[in-house]
Amino acid sequence: METTKIASFDRVSELKAFDDTKTGVKGLVDAGVSKIPRIFHHPSLKLSNPKPLPSDLLRLKTIPTIDLGGRVFEDVVKRKNAVEEIKEAAAKWGFFQVINHGVSLDLLEKMKDGVRDFHEQSPEVKKNFYSRDFSRRFLYQSNFDLFSSPAANWRDTFACTMAPNPPEPHDLPEICRDVLMEYSQQVMILGEFLFELLSEALGLNPNHLKDMDCSKGLLMLSHYYPPCPEPDLTLGTSQHADNSFLTVLLPDQIEGLQVLREGYWFDVPHVPGAIVINIGDLLQLITNDKFISLEHRVLGNKATRARVSVACFFTTGVLPDPRVYGPIRELVSEENPPKYRETTIREYATHFNTKGLDGTSALLHFKI
What we know:
Layout: H1 2-21, H2 24-30, H3 44-47, H4 55-58, E1 65-67, H5 76-92, E2 95-99, H6 105-119, H7 123-126, E3 138-141, E4 156-163, H8 177-201, H9 208-211, E5 218-225, E6 235-240, E7 246-251, E8 257-261, E9 264-267, E10 275-279, H10 281-286, E11 296-299, E12 307-314, E13 324-325, E14 343-344, H11 345-355
Parallel strand pairs: 1-2
Antiparallel strand pairs: 2-10, 3-4, 4-5, 5-12, 6-11, 7-10, 7-12, 8-9, 8-11, 13-14
Helix pairs in contact: 5-8, 6-8
């Protein structure tokens, strides 16, 4: 009993010491660590791919790539085909990649450069933004759940809420201010278009999900995964599902994202110019499991260069919003009754954040 107390006290002390540096994982890399601190060690079972893929799953290969036709379909048939592809991907994978999505490739590169520039600037400048106060318009930190998760991730992040109340320019760091504003505006436009297609895929009016305020809020998390000296002992991001309606993810060319389906981890390959889209828990809840929010993770970075990604979550998160969400009436019946109780986004987000990335689904708490 006493040993457990000492071990847990040591862990808390090490977590606090790491957090107090305000330099994150990059600070450890810059200091030249060759062994990762034990707060980052994950159990080996969490790191492995439990078993080789059986032949019937090998044919699945990986998540589908869908052509959005520049968001202007030439005819009704092409739009209908895209809707069918999205319907199948959202129901079976919860993930898909989109190309010809209408966001310029130049802007995608500028956004990734902006993330890299912020994280690679002087530690003294970055420290001014380091915080665990999630009410701030912009904050930089390492591991939002540092003190609640079983193990820390080899990752630093800056976060900003871009909608419904966009930050003032002076709230954002000058080094990436302009690109954050421009990219978030483009993501909002792309998101509204995707919600139209998802509404149609559910057999609903194209504006149904938008009218439910699914595209009202946007939280942007810009991740930085430094090269890891012991990548087989840790993760870049633990196994989790997203607490959003929809997530729009901009990855770079360094792979590491994996999706868990039927007990197997599938790599998400790099597709040049593509954006990764995934269904969040809130969309699974309101579609009554018609669309699924699959768990995913990011492996420790084995590359010699830092990996960056930008995850934009369509959710109002912990902002006050009285609207109550439950399974959409048109999607339930006597044969298919509601599987979830009603909740607010804030209640859901608070539960998710308190629980941390512990490898269990936050949806379980809301099951009927």
